[in-house]
Amino acid sequence: MAGGREIKTKIKSVQNTRKVTRALEMVSASKIRKAQDRMKTSRPYARVMRQVIGHLAQASSDYQHPYMVERAEPKRVGYVVVSSDRGLAGGLNNNLFRRLLVEIRNWQSRGVEVDVVTIGQKATAFFRRIKVDMLATVTHLGDAPKLEQLVGVIKVMSAAYTDGRVDRVFLAYNDFVNTMTQRATFDQLLPLPPTDDQVAKHDWDYLYEPDAPTVLEHVLQRYIEVLVYQAVLENVASEHAARMVAMKAASDNASKLIGTLQLVYNKARQAAITQEISEIVGGAAAV
């Protein structure tokens, strides 16, 4: 059995760790409300944009934007991967990367190459160790990311699709369901996926001013930016929720460990006292 001094050192160490985990838990609890407000504020706009683009994709127009054209038998696909910049968020990033690796291996088994652009330090560090081409990266977006920070990586991937270097583009991120649940999600960005809106199944067309190529180029580019920005906001809210839950569990486990170590310390102290009494009694008997 370890000595009393060694056990007391362990107890002090665990107590210091518990202070850190409790502080991180409280920080995330204070930040998650603002992150949720930003996410919920952006959701209606992103939802309406999906509906509008779904209508455009189903419209009977003579002009077909490259973003609307489905390419058979893709040779190369791209992923925009959204992750957090910091760790200590439980399995949030690992769950996303694990599912993404399955997707990548499925493509590679069919002879399809994979390109990625990463958003967040964790995704950047992870994909540097994986055999895929990383076209661009952006990190350190903070708790209140701005669209301007994302425009660069979005343009890299959209330009690769327009130039024919990739045939499909997907968005991978953690969707915020509630404080206890964050779901790894994969959405198809390009070409435009079919909409579930029943209205979009009608045979209709639009009048474009000044012309269809100019309008669609602007609207579809904004559509891609909105979806990526919404995914980043969802991921930030998921990060704070996952970190709060993980740090709460770590603090609870630390409290249990402190209680266990305290019992071990008491037993060691009682054994030391018993041994001292035995030595005193033995010495008195010898006299």
The rough form would be described as elongated
| Residues in helix, % | 55-70%
What is the tally of helical segments? 5
Helix-strand pattern? HEHEHEHEEH
In spatial order, strands of the major sheet run: 3-2-1-4-5
Mean pLDDT: 85
Task: Write up what this structure looks like.
- There is one protein chain.
- The chain is of the alpha/beta class.
- It is 58% helix and 14% strand.
- The protein has helices spanning 4-58, 92-109, 121-127, 151-162, 212-286, and strands at residues 76-82, 113-119, 133-138, 168-178, 181-190.
- The radius of gyration is 28 Å and the shape is elongated.
Task: Name its key features.
287 residues; five-stranded mixed sheet; 5 helices
Summarize the structure.
With 287 residues, the protein is an alpha/beta fold. The chain is built from five helices and five strands. Strands 3-2-1-4-5 form a five-stranded mixed beta sheet, with helices on both faces.
Q: Which secondary structure elements does this structure contain, and how are they paired or packed?
A:
Layout: H1 4-58, E1 76-82, H2 92-109, E2 113-119, H3 121-127, E3 133-138, H4 151-162, E4 168-178, E5 181-190, H5 212-286
